[in-house]
Write a sequence for this structure.
């Protein structure tokens, strides 16, 4: 039977300490309605990891130059159920980029906490923003790829720290960028330069097949060497 981990709860002073802010700042955020109401037990207010995740996300967005007013608008939008597109004038009919195969994912701070329980730290958020995994559209929080989000969350569930996952992602990006350049150079060298962009788009499944096969064989070699060791 799987062990069920009880959700952690914090008093106001504990939550402020975990988030690296003062109690006065925490009260200010509550007054601005940047945080959902705590659970009350008599006169005691109890906060949980979702509150902590939101505070850390607020800190990361502030570091990126976003304003409290904008973050408050985002919070109100999520909690009222309105489409974020209404807030930023982005209609539902806006066409996705046809050159990308990745599906962006809209996330609330609570969603981040659910995907990466206990791993949503200011440092990890800053790294994800710098890598471009997390982005902001106005004040909206977006993950650039459903596939990367799901894979990262799965690795964290297996016990790999999110910081290690992000570092691996940084290193993998360096290699995949080099591989993409190899493929693009080959296409430009042997096909019509005027239609190189269209050719890259049309032939990208072939490049992906080669990379996937080579990665699979490389993992085969590593697994075999581990078994033989």
């Amino acid at each position: 039977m799987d062990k069920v981990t009880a959700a952690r709860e914090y008093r106001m002073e504990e939550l402020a300490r975990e988030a690296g802010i003062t109690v006065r700042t925490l009260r200010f955020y509550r007054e601005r309605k940047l945080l959902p109401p705590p659970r009350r037990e008599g006169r005691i207010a109890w906060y949980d990891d979702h509150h902590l995740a939101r505070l850390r996300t607020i800190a990361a967005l502030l570091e990126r130059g976003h304003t409290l007013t904008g973050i408050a608008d985002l919070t109100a939008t999520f909690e009222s159920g309105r489409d974020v597109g209404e807030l930023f004038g982005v209609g539902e009919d806006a066409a996705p980029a046809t050159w990308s195969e990745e599906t962006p994912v809209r996330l609330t701070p609570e969603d981040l906490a659910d995907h990466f329980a206990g791993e949503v730290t200011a440092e990890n958020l800053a790294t994800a923003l710098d890598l471009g995994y997390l982005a902001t559209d106005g004040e909206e929080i977006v993950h650039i790829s459903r596939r990367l989000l799901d894979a990262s969350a799965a690795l964290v569930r297996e016990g790999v720290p999110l910081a290690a996952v992000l570092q691996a992602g940084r290193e993998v990006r360096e290699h995949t960028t080099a591989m993409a350049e190899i493929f693009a150079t080959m296409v430009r060298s042997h096909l019509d330069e005027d239609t190189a962009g269209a050719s890259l788009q049309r032939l990208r499944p072939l490049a992906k097949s080669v990379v996937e096969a080579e990665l699979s064989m490389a993992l085969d070699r590593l697994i075999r060497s581990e078994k033989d060791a």
Notes: The mean pLDDT is 80.
